[in-house]
Specification:
Blueprint (H helix, E strand, L loop, with lengths): L8 H11 L3 H8 L3 H8 L8 H12 L3 H16 L3 H4 L10 H10 L1 H9 L2 H8 L8 H14 L5 H18 L6 H24 L3 H18 L2 H11 L11 H14 L4 H17 L3 H16 L14 H18 L3 H7 L9 H18 L2 H18 L2 H12 L9 H9 L5
Helix pairs in contact: 1-5, 2-3, 5-10, 8-10, 9-11, 10-11, 10-12, 11-12, 12-13, 12-14, 13-14, 14-15, 15-16, 16-17, 16-18, 18-19, 18-20, 19-20, 20-21, 20-22, 21-22, 21-23
Length: 427
């Protein structure tokens, strides 16, 4: 590592990530506000005061050596991403513009690009050198890249790279290393196993999804971490959501077990509560649903999660869309069309494919609840078209769930007959 570090948006982001810190927590540590740290990361004026720079240097120097290595890996991988250098160049001088670079990062392009920029061979060579302990910093950095891409990537394109990197991490656990490094590598394995489980679920590879979630739980127990086990249980619950197996009671049991183990902040905590809300809504339990949504809103307004999971960081755009969309979906499940339409964002024709599918599915359900067959049909057909175009099998399952909730009196309408044929539903 070269000293002194030139503290720009990428470096601040990397420090947040390796410390598993929130903006507010890092700000308190170095003597700045959480809002100031958020501005640094999102491309505002970087820190210039000598006192703050010294605090940042001392914070980095005080980390364990492997965390400093991880910090370096994040910077190297970000610089090597095929999107970041081009998008971060000044159009006139050709030199790197840190503000533009931060905007690229904030949009997720550079981080999501890591999944494509780091092939399996490179992952293997970085994480498993020819001899000695595995490189935990590289394992975490590559996993974070894959995890970031999850928000926008096509599941069919992402499952194989995620599975390959998980295999690399599991091989690394067989090597000799310090106990703290082994538990951190297990934590990487938990995240990757959860990611693979989610992707397999989206591809309707249900058996594989169950196996990945069981592996995540085992690694969490081996690490002796309640927080990791809670994360595995939270993620496994998706297999029982309304648009999956539909066993909302089983989903709620898993989510409540996770809540008894750990209470995470930011996106992780809000996601759990929105999952609780969705399953109560599917069961027609209005008051528990609304209470869970209120808890989620409070968590998003409070301290954010660390690094990639920050509510103000790289998932900010996705997150804002996701929360309003999820709330609208819950209101539609409760048969409250007015509140659903008040929350649901319009499908973005330029947005990621999976996000467009979700938006159309939600819109179709809301129109179904409102008793509007034609716009319900149009939205459902759009969701089918996009799901088939990108191979999003989970999207088709979501449409089937919604169509099953349409008014049975619509069954004889020509457009509904066509919809059933597209979904291969029985007449």
């Amino acid at each position: 590592m070269s000293w002194p570090v030139q503290w720009g948006p990428v470096e601040i982001w990397a420090l947040l990530t390796v410390r598993r810190d929130s903006y507010a927590s890092l700000g308190r540590h170095i003597g700045a506000s959480g809002q100031t740290v958020a501005r640094w990361v999102s491309g505002g004026q970087p820190p210039t005061q000598k006192g703050l720079l010294r605090q940042l240097d001392e914070t980095l120097a005080g980390l364990a050596p492997w965390r400093r290595d991880w910090f370096d890996e994040l910077r190297v991988l970000t610089a090597s991403s095929h999107d970041a250098p081009r998008a971060g160049l000044d159009a006139e001088t050709g030199e790197e513009d840190p503000v533009k670079r931060a905007q690229v990062l904030r949009g997720g392009a550079a981080i999501a690009g890591l999944a494509a920029a780091v092939p399996v061979e490179r992952s293997l060579s970085r994480v498993l050198p020819s001899r000695g302990a595995p490189n935990v910093a590289s394992a975490r950095a590559i996993a974070d890249g894959l995890f970031s891409a999850y928000a926008t990537a096509n599941p069919a394109d992402q499952l194989d790279p995620a599975r390959a990197h998980l295999s690399t991490v599991l091989s690394g656990l067989g090597r000799v290393m310090l106990p703290g490094q082994r538990d951190e590598l297990r934590a990487v394995g938990v995240d990757l196993a959860c990611l693979c489980g989610l992707l397999a679920y989206m591809m309707r590879q249900t058996g594989d999804a169950h196996a990945f979630f069981a592996l995540a739980a085992k690694l969490a127990k081996d690490a002796g971490s309640d927080a990791l086990l809670a994360r595995a249980l939270d993620t496994e619950s998706v297999l029982y959501f309304p648009t999956a197996s539909g066993d909302s009671r089983a989903a709620l049991r898993l989510l409540n077990r996770a809540a008894a183990l750990d209470q995470p902040a930011g996106i992780l905590g809000a996601s759990r509560n929105m999952g609780i809300a969705e399953n109560h809504a599917a069961l027609g339990e209005r008051e528990p649903c609304l209470r869970a949504m209120e808890r989620a809103v409070r968590q998003l307004d409070g301290p954010d999660g660390y690094g990639l999971l920050s509510t103000q960081g790289y998932f900010a755009g996705w997150s804002e869309w996701a929360w309003t969309s999820w709330r609208g979906w819950c209101h539609a499940l409760l048969n409250d069309a007015d509140r659903a339409f008040g929350e649901l964002p319009d499908p973005d024709p330029q947005g990621p494919p999976r996000r467009r599918v979700i938006a159309w599915v939600n819109t179709a359900l809301a129109h179904g609840v409102a008793g509007d067959p034609e716009p319900a049909y149009d939205a459902a057909i759009s969701a089918i078209d996009e799901s088939e175009r990108v191979g999003y099998i989970g999207g088709l399952e979501k449409v089937r769930f919604v169509v099953a909730r349409f008014d049975p009196a619509w069954a004889g309408r020509p457009e509904m007959i066509e919809l059933s044929q597209r979904l291969r539903l029985p007449a």
